[in-house]
UniProtKB/TrEMBL annotation:
Pfam families: S4 (PF01479), tRNA-synt_1b (PF00579). This is Tyrosine--tRNA ligase. InterPro entries: aa-tRNA-synth_I_CS, aa-tRNA-synth_Ic, Rossmann-like_a/b/a_fold, S4_RNA-bd, S4_RNA-bd_sf, Tyr-tRNA-ligase, Tyr-tRNA-ligase_bac-type, Tyr-tRNA-ligase_bac_2. The gene is tyrS. A motif ('KMSKS' region) lies at residues 248-252.
Length: 418
């Protein structure tokens, strides 16, 4: 962990001209971003890369804290893919070392560190899922234990000497926790330092992250200066709103679209977003060009049905995570459901106890969480039996096989016996 910094001041390098292709690359980079710091520096990095033919090193670090990704996670992966398509070297960094510390970003309590077994289990599926967005053949995969483990106690102490407690306390989450008397463990201060040291080890030109990662990304920029490296630029992406259009996409809020969900489910969920939110999804998730999206938006403003644009978005996303046939099948299934039809892939459920009350059946078939919710859905006209609306909450159903439906997307083919 030798510091090769030199105190000698270098003469400023003359600015390179920004060609049309560099300007176009900059526009693609800035699409949908929250911040690009420092834009003028990154423009020069792009210009130098074009002139020299040496691709920029683009870093994204992800701690494998959960094994499944949703569309919200892919926002930053989409940006990586755009930069990959521009010819730059993207580095998918799995934080197997930093996961054992636990990222405190945005937390109001200490994040429990993961065990080695949990990390390995989650990391095993991470890149496979990320490869549905990134080109795996052109992606450099690294694990930060490569350089973090060899540091040892001496190296960690030397690294910790690079940053003051006052600088660490500039983080909003640390400040809020300190003022409220919520404990902050000493090891949490190490997280941003270790993430920053990743940038030194990888000689990153640009690091990507969510808006909640800004402080950590800036630490990397400062540490690179200590190692006499040109400081990385940082790019933060906004957090994608979920299906409710309000809260950020999250499994805990049940407003998410998982990238491993069936194509029909993904399609139906995407069709449920509002016409306004659709453009947000286009900007952050679609691989259509800026001009193509602008043309779609213009057509809708001039009277085209926004549903057609939403179908195009839903098919694009389903095709990306499945295939073209799945996208076509999902559209057919959605149209069938919207006409009151029954989809082909209805789960089979075997139950006993005929004759059975409709509310009890809906709960047993896991179409409603409780009998009270089932009653409410009947009252709202949201329950169908073999396609016919059920209006009687006291309805008793005899033995047989039939299809129950709740809302637009929940179905079960029930075989009921005595």
């Amino acid at each position: 962990m030798d510091n090769t910094s030199s105190s000698a001041k270098k003469a400023p390098t003359p600015a390179l001209p920004l060609t049309d292709s560099v300007q176009e690359a900059l526009a693609i980079t800035k699409r949908g971003v929250d911040e690009l710091l420092i834009e003028s520096e990154f423009a020069q990095k792009l210009a130098r890369s074009e002139q020299s033919g040496v691709p920029l090193r683009i870093k994204l670090g992800l701690d494998p804290t959960a094994p499944d990704l949703h569309l919200g996670h892919t926002v930053v992966l989409n940006k990586m893919r755009q930069l990959q398509n521009l010819g730059h070297q993207v580095i998918f960094l799995i934080g197997d070392f930093t996961s054992m510390i636990g990222d405190p970003s945005g937390r109001n309590a200490t994040r429990p560190p993961l065990t080695r077994e949990q990390i390995e289990a989650n990391a095993a599926t991470y890149f496979k899922q990320a490869s549905l967005v990134l080109d795996p053949a052109k992606t450099e995969i690294r694990y930060n234990s490569e350089w973090c483990d060899p540091l040892g106690a001496r190296g960690m102490i030397q690294l910790a000497s690079r940053y003051t407690v006052a600088r660490m306390m500039e983080r909003d989450d640390f400040t809020k926790r300190f003022k409220s008397g919520t404990p902050i463990s000493v090891h949490e201060f190490l997280y941003p330092l270790m993430q920053g040291y990743d940038s030194v080890a990888l000689k990153a030109d640009l690091e990507l992250g969510g808006t909640d990662q800004k402080f950590n990304l800036l630490v990397g920029r400062e540490l690179q200066k200590d190692w006499d490296q040109e400081p990385q630029c940082i790019l933060t992406m906004p957090l994608l709103e979920g299906l409710d259009g309000v809260e950020k996409m999250s499994k805990s809020k049940n407003n998410y679209i998982g990238i491993t969900e069936p194509g029909n489910t993904m399609f139906a969920k995407l069709m449920s977003i509002s016409d306004v939110m659709m453009w947000r999804y286009f900007e952050l998730l679609s691989w259509k060009s800026i001009d193509e999206v602008a043309a779609l938006k213009r057509a809708v403003e001039e009277g085209a049905n926004p549903r057609d644009a939403k179908v195009a978005l839903a098919q694009e996303i389903v095709e990306r995570f499945h295939d073209r046939q799945a996208a076509e099948d999902a559209l057919t299934d959605f149209v069938n459901r919207s006409k009151g039809g029954i989809p082909d892939d209805v789960p089979e459920v075997a139950l006993s106890g005929a004759p059975a009350g409709i509310a009890h059946l809906l709960k047993q078939a896991k179409l409603c969480a409780s009998t009270s919710e089932a009653m409410r859905m009947v009252d709202q006209g949201g329950v169908r039996l073999d396609g016919a609306v059920v209006s009687d909450k006291a309805l008793k159903i005899e033995a047989g096989t039939f299809v129950l439906q709740v809302g637009k997307r929940k179905f079960a083919r029930v075989t009921l016996t005595a």
